[in-house]
Write a structure and sequence with these properties.
The chain has 633 residues and is α/β, with parallel strands linked by helices. It has 20 helices and 32 strands. The structure holds adenosine monophosphate (AMP).
Length: 633
Amino acid sequence: MSTYKEFHRRSISDPEGFWDEQAKLIHWHKPFAKVLDYSRPPFAKWFVGGETNLCYNAVDRHLEDRSDRNALIFVSTETDSEKTYSFRELHAEVNRCAAMMQSLGVDKGDRVLIYMPMIPEACFAMLACARIGAIHSVVFGGFASHSLASRIDDASPKLVISADAGSRAGKVVPYKPLLDEAIRLAKFPPAKVILFDRGLDPGMARVAGRDLDWVELRAQHLNAQVPCVWLESNEPSYILYTSGTTGHPKGVQRDVGGHAVALAASMKHIYCGNAGETYFSTSDIGWVVGHSYIIYGPLIAGMATIMYEGTPVRPDAGILWKIVEKYKVTVMFSAPTAIRVLKKQDQAFLKKYDLSSLRYLFLAGEPLDEPSHRWITEGLGRPVIDHYWQTETGWPLLTSVPGVEQTPIKFGSPSFPAYGYNVKLLHETTTEEVGTGEKGVVVIVPPLPPGCMSTVWGDDERFVKTYFETIPGKLVYSTFDWGIRDKDGYYFILGRTDDVINVAGHRLGTREIEEAISSHPAIAEVAVIGAADQLKGQVPVAFAVLKDPSQIESSAGRMKLEGDIMKTVDQQLGAIGRPARVHFVTLLPKTRSGKVLRRSIQSICDGRDPGDLTTIEDPGALQQVRDAIAGKA
Ligand code: AMP
């Protein structure tokens, strides 16, 4: 493995030389004066003084060589539509959208919140923001009013761009009522809203003077030419909220130059995607994978990118492979949950289509179990690369790097640290590096490489405190994941060290769900944990203490209340946070100092030993958890 090892070693021992070379992969309007400024640890500034633009690199740069080649391929099995845009057409749409935003007073540095389904207009809006130096904050369409309102308040966007509705598994999901409610709840409501009316929700209400129609506005800017605004490399490009241990999501802020260079380098070294080919990520623009590998990464590399609105099993379990065949996809990116869903279907679907174009399938977002890894590798007859990353890193931090060297894949392992990442496994209490086969916290020795978050939006202190001050006496970035390394240097991720759970590849803070449940008037106290689930990896399960237990004396009363609580979560956070079960108990297992023993509850739910219970206040509480799960309560 000398080549991979050498590549990685150089990136750590000479980061400036290494990244100076990678920076040549993108267009710089003005060259940078310094590769790295690390004078204020842990804040890393990459490509200082350089000026560039993400939209220019993703779109304009390709006009000369491939203006008529596909750039964006939209496939919706929800609305039965398909549409392709060449780089020239994408350029025109992005210019129109940029002009629309400018006509509403959106300027460099202003925030634009994008709350949209997987439609091309969402891509235009993101790139238009990048073009004019506005900062986009894309909010996943599955989030409901309360989540949306807190993001509106944190980012205080001048403009919100949304649509009448999305569609999920054939069912229309209206967006506008949730948006209206969020704006009503928000302390800093946006002045304007642009709505793309898909005709899915004929009853969509509009607020006069605030809500504008995308199609009408676009018609006013058909021939718009909006120059790219050149940004200093370290200016913010976007904010993306992610969950942590508090009830308040953090705004992960990313820069411009480092972001572009990191993505361009990853397209070359990790994904092996070439200009003129097609990239297919099954994620959603509301997640970091959607930002990096539906929009920016593939386009920066001059590839066509597929935006897919639909599920992996409609109209049948062959749909993803049908798309691969039709658009000759060379690189594909999905999540373990999708593979587990497909595994339950007829394997014949994998053989039905011509997948000869496909070089690699990459998977990320949650632990990939060995049987699923094996099943999909054998089914495809192609390398399936599990790689590990976070919203914060923006690109993989543990991965095989086949563009440098094709190292053997081990099932269940995301391989090795990617170039640029100085990864260590530290012992939980001694904080020393652990040995082979020993469990440790996965940390990165700063500076973080280009493309990683530059800070928490509006809160430098929270950035330092949250990520760099968790290991006593050591300034290292904590991933909050447990990992081990085997004798061959392969890493395995064992799960989170904190109270964050991972549902179908999406990170959810148990605190956020607890806060939503607590807003129900019947609830005195609640603890949410992530219980193991065959399909989704984990699902939230709640243990609630009621103010008045007489409410659940009858089983009908119990069922009604459980349903009501689930509805409350749907309304506040969105169905994504809905607990699979709400169990009622009369007390929660706590330490004598009053801390809820979530991990012990979780162990019981997963059928494991609850661990050290010497500090528990009342062991009867754990028995109640056991009884509740066994259906005795
Ligand atoms: P998010 O920022 O929402 O993408 O979630 C990141 C978290 O997902 C990580 O901290 C891990 O807990 C988990 N994760 C992502 N990729 C993997 C992977 N390949 N294997 C195991 N866990 C993963």
